[in-house]
Design brief:
EC number: 5.3.2.-
Largest sheet: 2 strands, parallel
InterPro entries: 4-OT (IPR018191), 4-OT-like_dom (IPR004370), Tautomerase/MIF_sf (IPR014347)
Protein name: Tautomerase
GO molecular function: isomerase activity
CATH topology: Macrophage Migration Inhibitory Factor
Mean pLDDT: 96
Strand order of the largest sheet: 1-2
Number of helices: 1
CATH class: Alpha Beta
Enzyme class: isomerase
């Protein structure tokens, strides 16, 4: 059973997250030749203050 974990910065709409889950699932089904029902996709949203680039948080 493939499990895909995706980390994203907060702020995407529910519709965007549904599209990500759907399209990632389809890609795994095609590339790994597994049934759609066996694919798990987990999206973890990271607050901007918890994401650092270049020594600063994304909200700075």
């Amino acid at each position: 059973m493939p499990i895909v974990q995706i980390q994203l910065l907060e702020g995407r709409s529910i519709e965007q997250k549904k599209n990500i889950i759907s399209e990632v699932t389809d890609a795994i089904v095609k590339s790994a030749d597994v049934p759609k029902e066996n694919v798990r996709v987990i999206i973890t949203e990271i607050p901007h203050v918890h994401w650092g680039t270049g020594g600063k948080t994304k909200d700075e």
